[in-house]
Design brief:
The chain is an all-alpha fold and about 250 residues long. It is built from 10 helices and no strands.
């Protein structure tokens, strides 16, 4: 059953959630829809923005798309036998936008009561997003999705490190691994990172290894909530970092 309200796990496979959407209790269905909207609004928004719509129209289309999905119960029509959920969503998004633009619609519509407010999410979230040159809207959608996965798990790691007195471990890990992946910058030398935190280079390397293992565990745990096997977990992790052009290994 889906119980997350936006602060917990950020799985990358959606079929378990869709089971609640299709056949769960009303409260389980609402919770699952809430998770899916929180997970995918930003990839949808940046796809629309970089498909040629200005920011306000992209926001309105994002609202309208999710409202349409909920009104027509499209989430429940996804079929895991036909491929990845995000591919299904992107295909539906393209068809929806084509129909909306042809009809001259895209009026501001909001998902049903009880679900997360997209207005609130958009107002509270940094909206700037500058994709690399030459990226297609489809590539931008995938990168936004993968980035959100990595950042959500990273927030879990940060909380865990704060609770266990490993804040320096977290800082070294983000500086050495995550920032280079997400920002496309060179890895800083370990000697420099260790010196910055008053450590020897060997101590810095040990801190990094501890944080990497914790991050990998959290990532596998979250994906494993919804994946069918260890092989699928590994495949999803590879897919995420292939999209981002890096690896947490």
């Amino acid at each position: 059953m889906a119980t997350e309200t936006g602060r917990g796990s950020f799985p990358t496979t959606n079929w378990g959630l869709l089971a609640d959407v299709r056949g769960g209790s009303p409260s389980a269905k609402l919770a699952a829809l809430d998770i899916l909207i929180r997970r995918y609004w930003k990839p949808v928004f940046v796809f629309l923005k970089y498909s040629g719509h200005d920011e306000e129209r992209a926001k309105d289309l994002t609202q309208a798309f999710f409202a349409d999905w909920i009104e027509n119960d499209v989430f429940a029509k996804a079929d895991e036998r036909k491929g990845r959920f995000r591919s299904f969503m992107l295909s539906c998004l393209k068809r929806f936008v084509s129909n909306e633009c042809r009809a001259g619609n895209a009026q501001k519509r909001k998902p049903a009561a009880g679900l997360v407010s997209l207005d609130e999410l958009m107002d509270k979230t940094e909206m700037s997003y500058e994709p690399a040159g030459g990226m297609t809207p489809d590539m931008i959608f995938d990168r936004a999705w993968a980035s959100e996965v990595v950042l959500r798990v990273l927030r879990h790691l940060e909380r865990e490190c704060q609770e266990t007195g490993k804040c320096v471990h977290y800082k070294i890990f983000t500086s050495r691994i995550i920032n280079p992946i997400l920002q496309g910058i060179p890895e800083p030398p370990m000697a420099d990172l260790a010196f910055e935190h008053g450590l020897t280079e060997k101590q810095g390397a040990n801190h990094l290894l501890t944080a990497k293992r914790a991050y990998q565990r959290l990532l596998r745990e979250e994906i494993g909530l919804y994946a069918d096997s260890d092989a699928e977990v590994s495949s999803e992790i590879r897919d995420i970092f292939n999209v981002l052009g890096g690896s947490p290994q």
